[in-house]
Please model this.
Amino acid sequence: MVDSLSTRLADSIVALIETDGKTEGDPIPSARALSERFEVTTPTVREALRRLEATGVVVFRHGSGTFVGPGHGRGLVANPHVTASHRSVLELIEARLVIEPSIAASAAAHRTDRDLEDLRAACENSRRSDEVPETSAHFHAVLARATGNRVLADALEAMLAMNRRQRRILREEFIVPETDHAEHLALVEAVRQRDAETARFLAAAHLRALRQAVRTQLEAETGPLP
Model:
């Protein structure tokens, strides 16, 4: 299959971002400037940018311009058209249970003082917002970065990005904000104390409680689960 012009242009814009050394939050040239640079029409540039927006590579800010998004550099990207269900929410939690307790333990062992500050900020930001936070600012994504392992951090952030709709269902239907905040604070304290085993236990307990809540709801809808 021959790639469309907008697809090839999207690849060129990504290459430009990388060549210029831009990172998340940095501005990129306007659609008009890009059309002149790549000698294509402005509508073609806008179509290419919409493709990149759909996967989080760029974000549009009304009145400000276009900026590098949290999806830049990910090996896995979200499908913006996928539907979400209680079953897919359960699958997300079970997948997170496989890796996040170990991530929490590693974060406790390797975190820096800056990581600890970022964790505290993410914890507070989550409490103040009723919206699903940007993936890069999500508490568990920040926790993964505290491991110092870029592969782990990218993998978890990609998982969260690909399941944004499932995370919204979790937040709106199953998460009790006060309980969630208290559990996150306890995890931050374990990380502060460099207590890897307590961090592992708390991360697993947090996710198991969510899994049970979702399972109960799903069984009420579909009958007993295996």
User: Anything to note?
Assistant: DSSP finds ten helices and two strands in the chain. The chain has a mean pLDDT of 87. Residues 116 and 192 are 7 Å apart (CA to CA).
